[in-house]
Amino acid sequence: RENRVPYYQRLFQKHDGIRQWNKTARSRAILMPYYIMLWGGFGASMYMMCRQVLVRWFFGSPRTNADDVLQGKKTWY
């Protein structure tokens, strides 16, 4: 089997302005699901936070009984 250490040493030590985690061919395949989950989770949290704030400001409290949360009545929609 070929020794790939010198190849990767040259690749990662080259000063070409590319970040280390973006230098290999597999980087996009590995990072794309991570970025999707990261920004998707952030977007979902922002959506729910804004939704809760706007519902409470404009329509009053959506649930007045604290037991509703325990009974599973508080959903995304």
TrEMBL record:
<keyword id="KW-0472">Membrane</keyword>
<dbReference type="GO" id="GO:0005743">
    <property type="term" value="C:mitochondrial inner membrane"/>
</dbReference>
<keyword id="KW-1133">Transmembrane helix</keyword>
<dbReference type="Pfam" id="PF02238">
    <property type="entry name" value="COX7a"/>
</dbReference>
<dbReference type="InterPro" id="IPR039297">
    <property type="entry name" value="COX7a"/>
</dbReference>
<feature type="transmembrane region" description="Helical">
    <location>
        <begin position="29"/>
        <end position="49"/>
    </location>
</feature>
<keyword id="KW-0496">Mitochondrion</keyword>
<protein>
    <submittedName>
        <fullName>Uncharacterized protein</fullName>
    </submittedName>
</protein>
<keyword id="KW-0999">Mitochondrion inner membrane</keyword>
<keyword id="KW-0812">Transmembrane</keyword>
